Fold this sequence. Notes:
- By secondary structure, the protein is mostly beta strands.
- The chain is built from three helices and 29 strands.
- The strands form eight sheets. It has a nine-stranded antiparallel β-sheet with strand order 11-12-13-14-29-23-22-17-20, with no helix packed on it. Strands 1-2-3-4-5 form a five-stranded antiparallel β-sheet, with no helix packed on it. A five-stranded antiparallel β-sheet has the order 19-18-21-24-27.
- The model is unreliable at about 15-30 (pLDDT under 50).
- Alpha-D-galactopyranose (GLA) binds near residues 99, 110, 135 and 344.
Amino acid sequence: MKTRNYLNRCGRMSVIILCILFNQLNAKVETMVEKNLYGKLPDGREVYQFTLKNASGTTVKLINYGAIVTSLCVPNRNGVVEDVVLGYDSLQGYINDQSYFGAIVGRYGNRINKGAFVLDGKEYHLTINDGENHLHGGKFGFFKALWDAKVVNDSASPSVAMTYVSPDGEEGYPGNVTITVTYTLTNDNALKIVYEGTTDKPTLLNPTHHSYFNLSGSLTTSILDHKLTIDADSITEIDERLIPTGQLLDVTNTPFDFRTFHTIGERINDNHPQLKYGNGYDHNWVLNSFNGKVRKVVEVYEEKSGRVLEVLTDQPGIQFYSGNFLNGSQKGKRVVYQHRTAFCLEPQCFPDSPNHPNFPSAVLRPGEVYHQTTIYKFSTR
Ligand code: GLA
């Protein structure tokens, strides 16, 4: 009897050990990066798609055109995995895109007044592509470039590094800039983006990530019910062209105070001049506790799905854009993207900083290394 119990116990132990080994093996298989041909550019260059999977059921798809996140599928509170970013169905959609879906934008994320700035006494003129201003790096910024992509083999989590060499004079910027953006999907459902850049002449470098998020699991529903906090006491005030005036505006008693949770829609139509200029929220929040270290700056919660998005960054500012320019002319993933069906959270240096000595500097000089870490972390509640 005793011997039989002992043998049973041994059997059960072996099954448990085998299960653990199998799970570990499975987890390893599941955390691999897949690489597939995604399409060809009109000049014949090939674009690849990289699929990053973790053991928690999250999948991120990236392409090396624009270093774009094409899909980001994360579980809701019941474990149902759904896509939470807008995107197109094929490469042609991204080639035609004017909204920067999922891309790395730069050299300078956001606007530079009239595309003009002075650096070391010399005046530079950048491509004008937003009214009379320069936006997101110009007509053919980082988001329209073919990046050189490599799977990072020595990483514990699935990871892809993309490098682009932006030539001297591109879109009017001085210096050859080499930028590497490394996307890593961790097992706790965080998409970590690390940027590194160098130059051979003094220049500007202020890239950011431009995913359009909708946490509901449906890319056709409004984002106005999403609840948001931003750890910031002020925004950079803008004029009617969305260019900073140079003044900081205290958020106290304004629709820009997200220091406690508010839905995006609660005050978006208030009669506030800044909301009129932005056509909703399209402003840079001056983030608290800026000391070059990564800290949590934003949390978004979507009640029905239970999804939570936390943004952590080492940057001084974040552009919160409530999808005001989406108007039904953008189509992809078998749906039409309507007004305010997604929002962007773009960590960065302040807009138009070269023309405001009181703003943090986005100047990069030879011998220096530009560095940014931003994390989009998903969970449920
Ligand atoms: C940023 C800008 C917006 C708009 C979008 C893209 O968020 O601040 O004004 O240009 O990008 O449409």
